[in-house]
Amino acid sequence: MKKSPTDALLIDAHVLDRLFSTVVARRTADPAHSHSARLLSRGTRKVAQKFGEEAVECLIEAVAGNKRELVGESADVLYHLIVMWVDAGLQPMEIWQELQRREGVSGVAEKASRPATSGI
Question: What ranges make up the beta strands (E) of the chain?
């Protein structure tokens, strides 16, 4: 049976769930042997800082039009985002459900429906 491009996308999307499971499992690993454990052991501020650094690097490659580098930096952003979820006690399903809730809703309408926030 031939697989459709949609089938391949669904299979590949599970890599994020597997990555999440790996980061959770490594949370209690020796920080000397696990990058995830080392990041998580340094606290929320460091986890968030690393995510921000990777996001900026991703933006730089996008603006420069460096597609190959953008792929690598995008993977780094997703990894560090997952580390941040683990640090915050979030489960991927919470994010998938929010994305599903927003599916088919205009971005303008969705943003307008959010409560007003102060600060950032």
Answer: none
